[in-house]
Amino acid sequence: MSDKSKLKEKILIVDDSEMNRMILSDMLEDDFEILEAPDGPQGLAILQQMSSEISLVLLDIVMPGMDGFEVLAVMNKNQWIEDVPVIMISAESTPSYVRRAYELGVIDYISRPFDSLVVQRRVLNTIMLYAKQKKLMGLVTEQMYEKEKNTSLMVTILSHIVEFRNGESGLHVLHIQTITELLLKSLIKKTDQYHLSHADINMINMASALHDIGKIAIPSEVLNKPGRFTDEEYKIMKTHSMIGASMLEDLPFHQDEPLVKVAYEICRWHHERYDGRGYPDGLKGEEIPISAQVVSMADVYDALTSERVYKKAFSHETALQMIQEGQCGTFNPLLLECLMDVADSLVEEMKSASLNTKNEKEMRNIAEEIMRYEEMEGSNRTLLYLDQERAKNRFYSSISKEILFEYTVSPSILTLTEWSAEKLGLSEVTLDPLKNETVLESMAQEDIQKLGELLHRTTPEEPEASYVCKTKIDGEVKERRFICRADWSEEEEPVFRGVIGKVEDIVHEDF
């Protein structure tokens, strides 16, 4: 197989008719790598092995053994249909067949006999559409990752400000998050009573860092007193839970954000006790939100095992015993079981807790969460976000009076904004642009070749390139600059996939 063929998009044709497969292959093999399956089971076997590599499936309806609808049902069950577009190709054009095909997720429906131009155009359009959607999804995922990362960073900074004022190293916040995460993960293995998802665990874990935010309003002479509190001082100290909750409640924005709501629960009620003897509201049992219950236990364990201005640290074993015996208040029996279940791993996790490792772990958790939720692509929120991104992209392109372009190597396609296409006298989408007369007339063959060589000398680490040459645009020949960013694959040996860029006039200023 040549290097050129390796770069081609793969299309899978599933049809029991050898003649139909041959006709479709002849239409498409110049631009695509063709895979063939004579029946449904073999088509699914290929998909199972290569679904991530296949760009499109051309699927017949009427086949012996397993028909096209059954193939689609399996693709839906395995969620392949979300990533691999399907065009149904069949002589059967009954409305009920067509409707059922669309209901099962096909992106297009082409009736036989085949029209070569129609097949080629629809195949290209479908592959381009899905490629754009994948790029947009990558952008959305990256933006969501950045948002979560920034939110986590701000929460961590704020919580460490409180800890710094409290005269502590900042490890208390990290300890609370570590213990909270371990307890919650143990809890969901024991029961589904609290309906906690992995996203809920991450949110509670992040919000736990704000549990003592109200201490920022406690006088430092009380906060850092080395001895036992007087009754009056203890009353003042106890107000930090209500102060923290009030600070969150008084925010002039984001009151509907789940993180704010969970942080409010934790701030206000993490000193409540299961027997109703806690503060500030004397809640009892399951009246206390599970988020506050877990953080309460984490807070007590870390307080016992850490040195404070008023006490020495207890050992891990002693702390566990004191909590189990109720010396530090009463806790949910299920959480007591969870604490003992994670006791061994808790020691190791606490030893490794540090600002750097925690930040790395936070980022890893966010990335894993994005990967875990494959249904995110189907969520209304993400689809809305995608629509907004598309609308913004179309708007920015429409108002830009610059030649903006995108070129993909396989298949060879030049995509232009509407204004750019009009200026160049081209279609917005041009197949095989290096064979197009208008493109070839716009700049010298030598410059086209040099620009291509320059782009191929870029790397994934340094993808930018700039090239100046004479070009003919809108009938005017003048020097212009190509500003480009190459697109490379993420394989071990990266492959050049294309380029995005713009063409700008060179302004010579007289001094």
Mean pLDDT: 81
What is the overall shape? elongated
Determine the CATH superfamily of the largest domain: Hypothetical protein af1432
What is the CATH level 1 assignment of the largest domain? Mainly Alpha
Q: What is the CA-atom radius of gyration, in angstroms?
A: 31 Å
| Strand content range | 5-15%
What is the number of domains? 3
Q: Write the CATH architecture name of the largest domain.
A: Orthogonal Bundle
Would you write up a description of this structure?
By secondary structure, the protein is α/β, with parallel strands linked by helices. The protein folds into three domains: 3-114, Response regulator (Rossmann fold); 145-378, Hypothetical protein af1432 (Orthogonal Bundle); 400-505, 2-Layer Sandwich (Beta-Lactamase), CATH 3.30.450.20. It has 21 helices and eleven strands. The strands form two sheets. It has a six-stranded antiparallel beta sheet. Strand 9 and strand 10 form a beta hairpin. Helix 12 crosses helix 13. The two termini are 58 Å apart.
